[in-house]
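Researcher: I'd like a structural prediction for the single chain below. Treat it as a standalone chain; there are no partners to consider.
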Amino acid sequence: MRHEWRRYNGHWLLNMKVRYGKSFARNLIPVLLVTGVVAGLALGNVFAAELAGTTKKIQRNTVTMGGKRSSGATKAVTATAGEGAMSTSSGTSKKVRKGHHYIRYYPATILNLNAQTGAAHGEAVLTWTAPGADGMAGKASGYRLVYSSVGPIGSEVNFDTATAYSQSFVPLSAGGAESRILSGLPLGATVYFAVKGIEPSGNRGRISNCPSAYVTLPASVSGTVSYSGTQGGKLVIAVFDSTRVFTTANLIVSTHLAQAGGYSLTGIPPGTTSYVAGFVDVNQSEKPEDGEDYGFYGGTSPISLNLASGESATEVDFEIFAASGAHLGTISGNISYGGAQSGSLRIEVFNNSAFSGQPVAVSTSSAGAYSFMVPGDVAYFMRVFVDQNSNAVFDSGEASGLYGPLNQGAEPIFVPRLSIASGKDVAVYDPGCSAAGCSGSGTSTASLSAVTAGSLADFTIQLIAGPSGMQSGGLAGFGVPSGWGALQSNCPSCNAYIVLTAASTNTVTMALDGDPSTGALEPLTGQYSAMAKVTAGSLNPGDTVQFVISKLPAPCQARAGVFTLTTAQNAGVAALPLFSGSPVITVGAGGAVTMAFSPLSLALTQHTTSQALLSGKDLCGAAAAVSGSTDVIVSGRIYSFANGAFSFDSDLRFSTSAEAGLLTPRTITFSAGQSSAAIFALAVSTGLKHIQAEYNLSGTTRYAYCAVNVLQGNPFSNVNLSSGAFNASRSSITVTPDGDGNGDMAFINFNLADPALSWKVQIASRSFDSGGTAIWQALGFGSAAPGRAAWDGRINLGAETGRTVMSGTYYVRISAGGVSNDTLQINVIVKQVSGQVTDPGITPAVPVPDVKVQAFGPVAGQVLTDSAGRYLLSGLSIGTYTFTFSKGQYLTSSTRTIVAGTSTVLNIPLSRAPILEVIPTLQAGATQGYEQWGELQVYTTGWASCSL
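Model: Treating it as a single chain, here is the predicted structure.
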């Protein structure tokens, strides 16, 4: 065997050839990895096979991770240690081909990996000595770290199947002491770890030793917090790791309670000394303030808890105590409520008449006398409601009332310090009720829940009187949703006829009243609501009123419609919608009842196949599927004006696909659930013809027709563009729609072979073949003489109608008789100003959306900035403009700019308007509200006086 070392591109390479006798082995060893020390060169942690002499036998040998060197005249070539190790080849005689073989390097094996339980749940701490890129030389490029809660990681297979820990650790230099905290590990389990170093080429070392650590579970506490004070706001309950509670630095976990009661907190690190405390967050600052009530688990001072892994401490009960009462005053009065709702009465005191934000004070009571304390020398507003669901929050539909003796809304209550504001009485009413009576009470039902779009619906709406019943002059209203037909009470056989019936345990007379605002009853004549009026007697709670409706036209849109019912207890209150909700009837699509062609007229070029679509239609004319298999006979027809009849035309033939044979007549079968079918038509003679479709969907034979105009050759000629009505024509032009009178418009010109054809011109920003959508169109008949179809660069379709398009290439499609011409293009060049508006008062500056940007000059324009503060004004002409930028709470900015090029960039900083707050204070000892006057002067930076 011959072998030699050579230097190649910075690497030492080994060339060798092995021969045994006169024969060569069939199998090849693909890679020979040589290790050891040769001629004083350090090659890593592995060694080279010693192959002396000229011819050697490579002995078959089992590879071990450490490698093995055989003795004697026969040598074994072993695999290199580390990932990627190769197995020895099989057989007794092998040939190692001559060539270059790279030497691989591997990080040293980590043998001192250590694992310990972390300080927090779900954590473990690992330490080890950093390997190098080449054994213990250099610096590794990374680590592959894995873990398992199943068992030790003792093999390459286990290492590969273990869970990889996601990390981007940057290794220290070889020999450095690594220490890493791992989080998110399996809770309450013994977890095993292993690691490999990775060198820059991606080679990995051997598996490290496999230590383990127990990963702790979080601890938790639960209990009940009580509070007998009156301060308003959420209760904040928290766990801290120090007796210095209520500090952010010591906070572990926290929760909010709407009111006193049970609480639960988890996520507490086990083995940590913990303290539980709580306070009333009156001002919503998330931290206790002077005067806010607070308390600890332990009474007057906090008691520590030391919880083990997964331990749950229950019955950690404590009380939040009221602060000093030296600054408090008292509100007292009576609460009255005679409604049907159940639940405690919650009294809330606010510092504003809108009852927004958190209440300053709260108390619970029952009907009758009440009294509680609030901070004194302050004016308050008070409301009371029935807390039906005990969530300590006022919800829509709950009975309520407010202090307002003048019936002018919420009125202030001044509470003097160390004194009593007495006689603050509040009446609580159910929703829609007042001292005069109730509105919106009762429930309702409908005899059906769904109808078919476009159908005539027969149904009954029933109203059940609420707890207050209905007295003389009371009203029960019935409103029809938008899109349904109008009601009438004169013609029983006509659509939308309505009849009223009432069932009462009392004697009652009710009648439909077309205009309940007048004394005399009037019939319904095409109205979208019906009002039933109690003219004599009364309805008791639970009595019913029925509206019976016949043949009410349903809308064609598939949607849900609310039939709004309203009630008024007597003539003293207005009718309001039922608070319990009104019936909903859903409109759904129906099946096909007719068929129709699309388009209804078609132009064909002689001997050229064209396509039409035959579709099923529902009652509203919308596409709909047939309910069962249906045969449709399609044939060619010619209409005779002499006798007013169609005759058969064998020159018009059909197929069901572009490849199928053409026949007339042709039978097309619609399968159940199918809504449309394509029909391909070809005519061998010219003239006006018709396609007839004969079908039967409801027991009656019916027909659908499509008019066909068969033309000779191309219907278009002289298709061109011009920048003036009579200018030279071409297929592509450039326009500049800036209002300067020069090249502002593009004229689309063409002639039609048949002057009776209608045409349509469309323009899109992408070619129509690639899915372009029209942004502008013009319609007409006959040839388009010069000036007939002209585009000024503006959009006339969609939401942006009226806006000038941006610069670019636009594509023209001319359509007539089912044939299109897409040969024309228009290049648009517009002058535009763009930029971004930012707020410089924040570092870094942030974009300002919804800023109104206005341009005043030769052309006026206006636009709003988007969410990124950006804007674009296009279609401007050359000249000087004044741009203004304005938005509420910002100072308006104005600047002058010359628009000359096609694109101008104008970025604007918009500063916030300064805010001045004037906060008056009450005089010491004041017990009543009073007005306080003063003077405010504002000066500019140059001390020039400004008027307010």
